[in-house]
Amino acid sequence: MLGHKRNKVSYRGLALRSTAPSLCIASLVLAVPTAASDASYNLAGIAGLIDMPSGEAMPDAELAVTMSTFAGGTRASSTFQITKRLSGTFRYSRIDNWNTIEYPTYYDRSFDLRYQFLTETEYLPAVTVGIMDVAGTGIYSAEYIAATKNFSPKIRATIGLGWGRLGSYNSIGSPFGTRPPIDVGQGGTFSTNQYFRGPMSVFGGVEYRPTEKLSLKVEYSSDDYTLEAGEKDLFDRKSPLNFGAEYRFNDIISAGVYYMYGSELAASLSMKFSPKRPAVLGSYGPAPLAVQPRPVYADDPEQYSTIWMTEPGSQEILAQNLQKHMEFDDVKMEAVAMRGTSVEVRIRNETFINSAQAIGRTARALTRTMPPSVETFEIVNMVNGLATSVVKLKRSDVEKFSTAPNGEALIMASAVIEDIVPTKPANLIYAPGVYPDFQWAIDPYMDFSLFDPDDPIRWGAGIEATTLQFLAPGLELSGSIQAQLIGTLGKDESPSTSAIQPVRSDANLYESFSPVSLQYLTLGYFFQPTEEIYGRVSAGYLERMFGGISSELLWMPVNQPFAFGIEANYVVQRETDSYLGFQDYGVATGHASMYYKHEASGFDFQLSAGKYLAGDVGGTFTVRREFTNGWRVGAFATITDLSAEDYGEGSFDKGVILEIPQSWLTGKPSRRVQEVALQVLSRDGGAQLIVNDRLYDRIRVNHAAAIRDGQGRVWR
Questions:
Q1: Which residues, if any, are the signal sequence (predicted)?
Q2: pLDDT at residue 97 in the model
């Protein structure tokens, strides 16, 4: 099995007069302390009532998907609670019967941000400020301030002020100046001159929960639906009042039906889950071998002698025995070097999402195989032939803490995690079958292309054959072939209309040529000039659209939260048949990158600057939040020297990244990660070369912060 294979699912796109009820105001004034109820998602996929937002925040790290339909429109929203107060929402909307020559059916992408400035207290409501459609076309643009207060476990009320769409009905003035008109074709730019400007209106509502599962809602909406109900005549807005009922089937799924604006019915379905909680309770697989304590020294001091070091063949026998024990516990031993009172064992973790679990199992195996004189365990974490860190444990601590209360924290507190000198010990014994080592796998895959106005959802599914050959320490050959068996991908043969070199916008041509494609075939060499510097050179067919040579150097101290890397590449665009030929376009690209990991919050930051595939120059900022179970949720944005006109729709490259560990879904140990890159638009500006095994993500999992974060798994 390919221990570090990352299954990738890519998502690409080419195109998309009365006052507020006095009940809300009175209830906020007369609030009494009560327990807060669970917040719910509105039709826009954010915390709210029915069509209006609320002041609530969802539980930290909650991820939700909401589908809603109303007046011929459908919205699909994904919301992530980035921190306890900050959340972001990506939304894709379809409106039928738009009735224009250009857009008979209109598609729109929008992104929201909201921040809860006040959490609910005994006397104060929760208060949230939000911006809808932060950098979109402006059709769904709105800003708001919403306050929500619970009055009993069954009743809560919301009141707020809205601008933009939420200030379009029964305005009470424009306290912050006039609002410039929206520019529908301007998508991708931040229209800061519109934020909180123009007419301001009041909205609000009340929610009543007769049971834990059922919620009844009524709201007063400040959205006039000027385009939909006015210019486009998609429905008749007769009243500002909306009524609804929502039912929560379980902790994951809820649904709602609503009577909207005195004339229309609406419905919604929400699914929510948390990366902090596994999808499957418990875990599968055999328990690890138990720690085997040594006899007490006073009872048998001769057993602590180091004379075994002088016995012919003793070290080879011990190495074989250790390898068998480690294989039983699903850890691969690369090599071992023994000394009279210490042992260095080099391990390759191909099974567990967190390195701490592999380290703990290795320590167990060492207690069962090493002579009593061996007191120090030096466990070296190997990746691509690189010695990325060494974890030093006292055997007596392993024996003492393996069954102690809070033993995970105690053993990690006693552990010493250091950089390791790349020089190998002279008496290093390699395990048989480690080099060369041939691995292969055949797996199903699924690919999507989203957001094309002519065909919003295209998909393909099939099988992928992958191989990874460890030829020698630091030298690897890897490849992948995909065969699409079913789906609609490959049916679009339209050429790119990009104003610059089509390095990504003609991806459909690669999909349409043949259902069978060579995804990559590369030879990689990994080296370590010093204990803190790592290097990589990869050559061959690096990705489906480009081949050539890629090189990288990374400075990354094991006990520091920061790192710095440089990458240089020369690549040529491959023929659209995805076989062995090349086109005429070649380009030299490269980036300098700074990395920073904020250990307390789990946020990982990366800032890269350099030259991209189309020859444009600029920078990419990426932020991810990582969880100890392997989940990562993040976003990126790239701005280059291309003008918005040359870049095309969207104005700059941006997207959302999800990395979902297979072990979270199945409960079985695995290092496989399902990577979902939801790219709003697949344009040519800001396009980076795709390279397997970039160094930072390969090495960071074996550095001190990641190992200590996973201390809860060390004895599992």
A1: 1-31
A2: 84
